[in-house]
Design goal:
Blueprint lengths: L2 H11 L10 H14 L3 E5 L5 H12 L3 E6 L2 H15 L5 E5 L13 E6 L6 H8 L3 E10 L5 H12 L4 E6 L5 E6 L1
Parallel strand pairs: 1-2, 1-4, 2-3, 4-5
Antiparallel strand pairs: 5-7, 6-7
Helix pairs in contact: 2-3, 5-6
Bound molecules: S-adenosylmethionine.
Length: 183
């Protein structure tokens, strides 16, 4: 990782509550998971100012991969994400989409290796319904806020646990992660 990127992460961690960013340990876990698995195509729903997206893109840059990341808040967080992606030097690995999921989920690539859900918690179930057939075998969905928002996440958690071919586990890190791999 470049020194410039390390500095940018440290800078953004000062305002992580304002922009609802994942914790640094969650980011390191996701980054290492993507590198280890060799994932190439990733989708993030909920970019905010780009903190988690840059950790994902840094991992993908090692795998010759690409991140599609979506943010619905036009003037504030989407614009900040644009600025941070420019500063990061990772722009060529990132397609930053202004739009609301699931409607604005890009049609290509047809399938992803890795999906990170970190948007409006009540909507995770709709995102899963839109994406369950758009993830490669051996691919993974990580959803944030499993322990901090158990009630709004319940329909999603129940649905994915009861859907064939998905193996679901939990990781006690940050606000709690649901990790689901597709067999
Ligand atoms: C928790 S923050 C994301 C934090 C970011 N993943 C990080 O850790 O740096 C959630 C973001 O998702 C955006 N959002 C919420 N629902 C969305 C949707 N359905 N589609 C796209 N963006 C959404 C919000 O505007 C907000 O900026």
């Amino acid at each position: 990782m470049t020194t410039k990127l390390q500095k940018l992460f440290k800078e953004l961690e000062k305002t992580n509550k304002t922009f609802w960013n994942i914790s640094r340990d969650t980011a390191i876990f996701i980054n290492a998971t993507i590198k280890e698995a060799g994932y190439k195509t990733a989708l993030e729903i909920g970019t905010s100012n780009g903190y988690s997206g840059m950790w994902i893109a840094e991992a993908l840059s090692q795998n010759d991969g690409h991140l599609y990341t979506m943010e619905s808040h036009a003037k504030g967080r989407y614009a900040l994400g644009e600025e941070n992606f420019k500063k990061s030097g990772l722009q060529k690995y990132i397609t930053h989409i202004l739009g609301h999921a699931p409607e604005a989920i890009p049609e290509t690539p047809k399938k992803f290796d890795f999906i990170f859900l970190d948007a409006t918690k009540e909507e995770y179930v709709e995102h899963f319904e839109a994406l369950e057939n758009r993830i490669n075998k051996g691919g993974m969905i990580i959803a944030d806020n499993l322990y901090s928002h158990p009630i709004p996440l319940k329909p999603f958690v129940d649905k994915i646990k009861n859907t064939k071919d998905w193996e679901v586990s939990e990781v006690t890190i940050g606000t709690g992660l649901l990790i689901a791999t597709k067999n």
